[in-house]
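Q: What would this chain look like folded?
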Amino acid sequence: KSFIPFRMANVLGVITARGGSKGIPGKNIKPLLGKPLIAYTIEAAKASGVVDRLILSTDDPAIAEVAKQHGCDVPFLRPADIADDKSAHLPVLQHAVKALKEKDCYEPDYVLLLQPTSPARQAFHIKEAVELIEKSGADSVLSVAEIPENYHHKKAMAINDGILRLVKDGGPIHNRVARRQDLEKNYWSIGSIYLFKTGLLFDLAKPNFYGEKTMPYVIDAKYVVDINVPTDWEAAEKVLEKLGTRH
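A: My prediction, written as structure tokens:
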């Protein structure tokens, strides 16, 4: 058995998976390489050894049943007013935390938002993200990946009045940085891990996920996949096949 060090902090994992997906009908429980999409996230979270409680927030009984079959707790069904395609994650997580406090007197130190659309996320990613927030004392940890050089912000261009201009300052494109060695690395949020102090959800001035100090958790590009449209599904199959679907 792997050794899990003693930890003072308590981490609540919340998997968000509403019904009614339009891009890929039934996406969250559709079989991906023979296993429901949501199962990849459940298995990674459980195998990480750092999630003290793992729950699902969904409005769909079918998704809830599949999640239960794979070992995820479903303490409630999400209210309809925060379950349509325009619902933001903030009220969804606020509802989840409040519901657990009222039902079980459970108040976690951190909330870990996990979306089923990132099936290549590994157990060690979750473990390392939790270790990072605990060691750094940061308000949050966000999973990011390096932006390819061709999409660097210092090379990006826009068309203004029919003329190409640099996005960064509106200058002429001959001012673009041409040498790779002169470009600092840029990163983008890949959506697989959002980890933050629970209190941020209820900040009186500005409820949010990030706080003032966000640590980056950089994930290798080979683990980056986000499923929203049918072509993403095909890409995910290729990524998982290459990884051997290991968690």
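The chain is about 25% helix and 20% strand.
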